[in-house]
């Protein structure tokens, strides 16, 4: 943990006016940096005490403003140290400076949300960021001073009611906003503003009613057609995207999960064969995937293996493109196949889960393979449609009963 204290004229310079700046001296692992305190007027030697809370004497015309600004910075550093100490994590100068250079109060969730939009930790398309901005606008109208300690189920129940009554938003829009809020609170936990236990309770009882369409998935025949398609020469580069999507079907991973798969997460059981034990990128829940069920998965791992011994990722970095381009290329492959389908990243995961449901895997096991935090999430995949009825009633023959 760093040590920090306000200092006057740390460079020990001399000038005619005898007015000098104030800095916060921060020492960490043998290194020292100085963070400037913005002041309306510099300070003379006889106006400086260095005493906590009253660093500048009241003989200075801006003593109140300067002492207040120093306290703000010290409070930010105290909060940052407390968060990282509680999380048993180490601080670095880049983390400290990023926190100090934020324009807003670092204890405000609203300010963190705004910073998240300005400098997102993941790649988002313009439409997604537009939704995040709209969500923040409504959140600020509802309450523009939400601290991290304020985050709770009751607060967001009230925000949901505000969206329904005052903002008059429809269910799907509100659901999109809450998905944004969940993502931002997830990263707030990653940045140690809240604990994982706190994060898990924030949206515990918030229910948003929307009419969800049945989750789409590929049928077995379509998977076979996708796997065996021979690309014309001018579209040969699409083979890589076809293969990565196949690996999504084999694992139930999102594109981001495949991208972040590590060599250390690949294992081999002496009796059954290869499997994955990995934390999902979305929620850090561990997923266990029996790759031996899809022998072609091992072929793809070898085909796109990361040969760089210093890089921990299982797949070569050259195998990946941005999510948006990837989705466009999946649609192009579907066109080449003559399909009238809305191909996208999520379809691979849905197809994996539906395969296991169709062929009799147990619900708790599917939940574990999918890396769901709650089994209720898995239940959404068990919606029954016509094809399910046909498959599920093949062994029933009422004609024999004469009815």
Question: Can you offer a commentary on this structure?
Answer:
The structure is a single chain. The protein is built from 16 helices and eight strands. The chain is mainly alpha-helical and 403 residues long. Strands 1-2-3 form a three-stranded antiparallel sheet, with helices on one face. The protein has a three-stranded antiparallel sheet with strand order 6-7-8. It has a two-stranded antiparallel ribbon with strand order 4-5. The relative contact order is 0.06.
Which strand-content bin applies to the residues? 5-15%
Give the helix tally: 16
Gyration radius from CA atoms, angstroms: 28 Å
Distance between the termini: 79 Å
Q: Low-confidence stretches at least 5 residues in length (pLDDT < 50)?
A: 384-390
Q: What composes the largest sheet?
A: 3 strands, antiparallel
Mean of residue pLDDT?
84
Proportion of helical residues: 40-55%
Order of helices and strands: EEEEEHHHHHHHHHHEEEHHHHHH
The best one-word shape is: elongated
């Amino acid at each position: 943990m760093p040590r920090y204290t306000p200092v006057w004229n740390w460079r020990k310079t001399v000038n005619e006016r005898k007015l000098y700046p104030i800095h916060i001296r921060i020492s960490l692992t043998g290194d020292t940096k100085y963070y400037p305190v913005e002041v309306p007027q510099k300070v003379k030697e006889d106006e400086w005490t260095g005493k906590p809370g009253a660093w500048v004497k009241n003989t200075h015309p801006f003593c109140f403003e300067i002492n207040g600004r120093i306290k703000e910075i010290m409070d930010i550093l105290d909060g940052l140290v407390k968060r990282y100490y509680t999380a048993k994590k180490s601080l670095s100068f880049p983390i400290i400076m990023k926190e100090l250079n934020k324009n807003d109060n670092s204890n405000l969730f609203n300010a963190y949300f705004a910073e998240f939009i300005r400098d997102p930790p993941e790649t988002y398309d313009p439409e997604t960021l537009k939704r995040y901005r709209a969500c923040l606008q409504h959140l600020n109208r509802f309450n523009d001073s939400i601290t991290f300690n304020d985050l709770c189920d009751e607060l967001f129940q009230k925000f949901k009611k505000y969206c329904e009554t005052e903002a008059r938003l429809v269910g799907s829009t509100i659901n999109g906003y809450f998905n944004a809020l969940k993502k931002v609170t997830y990263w707030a936990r990653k940045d140690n503003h809240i604990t994982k236990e706190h994060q898990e309770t924030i949206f515990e009882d918030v229910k948003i009613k929307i009419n969800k369409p049945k989750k789409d998935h590929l049928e077995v025949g379509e998977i076979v057609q996708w796997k065996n398609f021979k690309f014309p020469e001018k579209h040969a580069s699409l083979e890589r995207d076809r293969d990565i999507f196949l690996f999504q079907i084999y694992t139930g991973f999102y594109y981001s999960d495949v991208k972040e798969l590590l060599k250390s997460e690949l294992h081999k059981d002496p009796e059954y064969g290869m499997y994955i034990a990995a934390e999902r990128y979305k929620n850090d829940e561990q997923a266990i995937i029996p790759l031996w069920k899809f022998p072609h998965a091992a072929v793809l791992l070898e085909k796109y293996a990361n040969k760089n011994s210093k890089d921990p990722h299982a797949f070569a970095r050259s195998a990946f493109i941005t999510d948006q381009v990837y989705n466009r290329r999946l649609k192009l492959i579907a066109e080449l196949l003559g399909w009238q389908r809305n191909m996208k990243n999520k379809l691979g995961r849905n197809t994996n889960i539906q395969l296991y449901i169709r062929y009799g895997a147990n619900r708790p096991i599917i939940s574990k393979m999918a890396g769901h935090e709650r089994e209720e999430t898995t239940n959404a995949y068990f919606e029954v449609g016509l094809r399910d009825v046909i498959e599920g009633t093949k062994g029933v023959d009422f004609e024999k009963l004469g009815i």
